[in-house]
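General statements about sequence and structure are easier to judge against a single worked case. For one protein, we set the task of working out the structure tokens from the amino acid sequence alone. This step matters because it turns folding into a mapping between discrete strings. The amino acid sequence and the backbone structure tokens for this protein are reproduced below.
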Amino acid sequence: MGEVIDFTEQKFKRQAKKFVEQISSLYDMASELSEEYSQLLSQDPKKSIEMLPIFIKRLREVNPEPGMEALSGGPNQDWIAPLFNVLGGIYPFIERDARKEGLIQCLNYLDGLRYDYSQNHVELIHEPWLVGDILVNRNLYWCGFKRPTEILAKSRTWKDFLKNKGESDFFLTLAITCPEYSSLEVRKNFYKEFPEMLDRTEDGIAALTYENSENESKKTGEDIQLLIDRRMIKYDPLLHNDIRRKIEERKWIKLEK
């Protein structure tokens, strides 16, 4: 006869504690790998971009249980996305060719996942230029910004806003630029306190606005400028001139098919 299962509260607590400790240990190991990658990036950006797939592989091997990815719905985005954020930290400041290589490495990984798992990763990326370039080339990975809008719904004052933290700086900033979701007080203070994030988010908006308008124009035959104007309505009118200027600058990377 098999062992009698003990469902006592004491055993349950021990099991729960052991499980939490195991999960915490795995997250610590993932964090250490991300820190190792960050150090490599600061020493040799070119080499670190080339080695991104190796670090992703090492992170995927952190979990010792075979087949766990399949059971849990794919690679753990909480472990992988920090690597993208390390890359994102230098992404706007490196040469365009290096950016292109970094983008390709990210897409090579994301393309190997089911699209909704890829969305789970993208929604955790902070850097607007990196998110913009990913979505310009893979609009299927658009994850929306439900969580940021929920934060803003509870943060109508600047004081309340500072108490909350979004999962992605880009998607939170994107939501703030839409008056439908953000209060005037929050927009005014955010623009003042975080001008660089706003500026690069405008680059991301410009990229998505133009590329999505161009794609629609090719399908429907509608004038691309009218489509751009239609998409611009959702954004704060104070930003329209900047966004249109950034459309002309075309800082984003569109890979050849």
In short: The mean pLDDT is 87. The chain is about 70% helix and 0% strand. The chain has two domains: 12-141, 146-249. The first helix runs from residue 9 to 43.
